[in-house]
């Protein structure tokens, strides 16, 4: 393959390299005129064609040019902006796809809250089909652990306690894990984990109270409860399922 068959684009700071034939598939598009030098809006800078547009959205456009298919992530919510970019490049087949009802119809966002209460501890795992929902909850939920802050002055005085924030566990972009209640530490002392969920300032250690506050948070974000079930009869893990219709 000769070097002239490859084209490097700098779209809004993101660099793409592809075949010129990939960009020339639709003769009436601006990409065709860009390569022919007929569209003066596109400038050659350092061996790259600079395009002052959204580079993230262009990745979906380039994928469409390569595969002739429109495959978007399940939590993609920028249909109208992607349609605007397709109109800018004058890619009519892509515009037609984005105009189709099955692409622009509302998509539900799903959240599942798994709750397990065992003795003095409660365990939570939250799964969301939309990673933005999990990022929202991660920014609002804080777990604190109670630890002695200074040695006791005498054997009869109580140690002063302080609350230290703990990071939430994020097994993936789509879920988070945390717990509350009494926690046995390595030095055989009992620490208590509290959970705070903004904008509520309370620090709660009771798992049922934390569950109620978490459900209230999801309801205020537009989710509604669609069902509950017992996942395991042995440990009595409960699952609460929520759904929210997302409009593109």
Automatic annotation (TrEMBL):
<protein>
    <recommendedName>
        <fullName>Potassium channel regulatory protein</fullName>
    </recommendedName>
</protein>
<comment type="subunit">
    <text>Can form homooligomers. Interacts with KCNA1 (via cytoplasmic N-terminal domain) and KCNA4.</text>
</comment>
<dbReference type="GO" id="GO:0051260">
    <property type="term" value="P:protein homooligomerization"/>
</dbReference>
<dbReference type="InterPro" id="IPR011333">
    <property type="entry name" value="SKP1/BTB/POZ_sf"/>
</dbReference>
<dbReference type="GO" id="GO:0005783">
    <property type="term" value="C:endoplasmic reticulum"/>
</dbReference>
<keyword id="KW-0256">Endoplasmic reticulum</keyword>
<dbReference type="InterPro" id="IPR000210">
    <property type="entry name" value="BTB/POZ_dom"/>
</dbReference>
<feature type="domain" description="BTB">
    <location>
        <begin position="5"/>
        <end position="106"/>
    </location>
</feature>
<dbReference type="InterPro" id="IPR003131">
    <property type="entry name" value="T1-type_BTB"/>
</dbReference>
<dbReference type="Pfam" id="PF02214">
    <property type="entry name" value="BTB_2"/>
</dbReference>
<comment type="function">
    <text>Inhibits potassium fluxes in cells. May regulate Kv1 family channel proteins by retaining a fraction of channels in endomembranes.</text>
</comment>
């Amino acid at each position: 393959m000769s070097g002239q068959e490859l084209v490097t684009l700098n779209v809004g700071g993101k660099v793409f390299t592809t075949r010129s034939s990939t960009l020339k598939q639709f003769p009436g598009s601006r990409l065709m005129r860009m390569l022919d030098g007929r569209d003066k809006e596109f400038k050659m800078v350092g061996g790259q064609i600079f395009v002052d547009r959204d580079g993230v959205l262009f990745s979906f456009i380039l994928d469409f040019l390569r595969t002739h298919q429109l495959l978007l992530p399940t939590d993609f919510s920028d249909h109208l902006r992607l349609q605007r970019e397709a109109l800018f490049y004058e890619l009519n087949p892509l515009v037609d796809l984005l105009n189709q009802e099955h692409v622009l119809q509302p998509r539900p966002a799903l959240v599942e809250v798994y709750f397990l209460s065992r003795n003095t501890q409660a365990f939570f795992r939250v799964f969301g089909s939309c990673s933005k929902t999990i990022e929202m909850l991660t920014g609002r939920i804080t777990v604190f652990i109670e630890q002695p802050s200074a040695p006791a002055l005498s054997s009869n005085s109580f140690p002063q306690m302080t609350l230290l924030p703990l990071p939430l566990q994020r097994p993936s972009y789509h879920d988070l894990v945390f717990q509350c209640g009494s926690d046995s530490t390595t030095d055989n002392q009992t620490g208590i984990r509290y959970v705070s969920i903004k904008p509520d300032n309370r620090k709660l250690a009771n798992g049922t109270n934390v569950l109620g506050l978490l459900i209230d948070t999801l309801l205020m974000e537009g989710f509604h409860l669609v069902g509950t079930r017992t996942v395991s009869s042995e440990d009595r893990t409960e699952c609460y399922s929520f759904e929210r219709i997302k409009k593109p």
